[in-house]
């Protein structure tokens, strides 16, 4: 855990930039949903109106972001962007009577927790990509050594991803039912 926090502390600007970028992706998706209600409804029908944001599905998604990125580092940012775009289109804009603002508010917090977990996974992938690009002129042996180190850093960051997903799962199981009762 300490190594993962040192990595984040060292490259906090990159993590902050990724947070801003992926927030913008959600806003773009939400804007498109508001501009095109038929697109909004078709996306909801495509993925289902209920969010399946359980720990196991969220962890699987984080692994889908991270593991293929060991071989193809650009994978994580692209797959992550698609998830954030879908969230923006499907879940940010309320639908009167079905997905009201009151029922979505607790989901927004869940998306924030899970989204941060995904962003940390994407952060690991982007760091790995920058190491690959920066070490391209170092010679094969040294470049490979640096890349393998970046892969291990990527795996260390998965501890933080898992902790965020556990927090999201606990929030989903314990607090969302209570909040939905009040809203």
Structure description:
Helix 5 runs antiparallel to helix 6 (101-134) and helix 6 runs antiparallel to helix 7 (140-182). The protein is mainly alpha-helical and 183 residues long. It has 7 helices and no strands. The chain is elongated. The chain has one domain (2-182).
Summed up:
The chain has helices at residues 2-10, 12-35, 37-47, 55-66, 75-92, 101-134, 140-182. With 183 residues, the protein is mainly alpha-helical. Helix 2 (12-35) crosses helix 3 (37-47).
- Estimate the strand proportion: under 5%
Low-confidence stretches: none
Total number of beta strands: 0
- By DSSP (H or I, 4+ residues per run), the number of helices equals 7
Rg result? 18 Å
Order of helices and strands: HHHHHHH
Helix and strand topology:
Elements: H1 2-10, H2 12-35, H3 37-47, H4 55-66, H5 75-92, H6 101-134, H7 140-182
List keywords for this structure.
single chain; 183 residues; mainly alpha; elongated
